[in-house]
Amino acid sequence: MEFLQNPNVVYLLLAGGLIFAVLAMAAPGTGFLEIGALFILGLAGLGVIQYNIPISWVALIILLIGIVLFVMAIRKPKIWALLVASIVTIVVGSAFMFRSDVWYIPAVDPILASLVSVISGLFFWLVARKVIEARIARPRHDLDALVGAFGEAKTRIHSEGSVQIAGELWSARSKEPISSGARVRVINREGFTLLVEATNKQGD
After folding, report:
1. Using an 8 Å Cβ cutoff, are 164 and 150 in contact?
2. Is residue 138 part of a domain?
3. Which of 77-86, 88-97, 175-184 has the highest mean pLDDT?
């Protein structure tokens, strides 16, 4: 595995392993992504340890600063300067992550570091934004919005039954028996079961 002596290869493995790790967190339980992330990061770690590739702690600090700026950019997506600053900082930290014989010459190819940082940065930006949007988005089916809605009894309803509300079939019950086909109105809900009453009113 002499290819692991090349800092560029180790850098690519680290970036690829990180992408697999993020995908594994975004879609847990696949098994393939988790194993892939561990394998790729393990190879990168093997290269660093076995071939004693020197690490620049200053560059790692710069890289961590870039990650912090990137998190701030995700939280404040309208401030594009944060995103640009984070990518530039990550590029610099990545390029100098491994020490070379001459301190001002990066061990990782700057063009490679730039391409990988921009591509992975945009990838993480899109994934992170989607995750945040999914967490703050209202449920597609707002169950509380069903209260007051009108529908039709599809079966006889009393202790149990089913109604069609807004084109969907729901479990329902009522205080008084309701015949199949009757017009009903939702007056409350208990979990996924709707409490309904018979009505002659027409829904909107």
Report:
1. no
2. no
3. 175-184
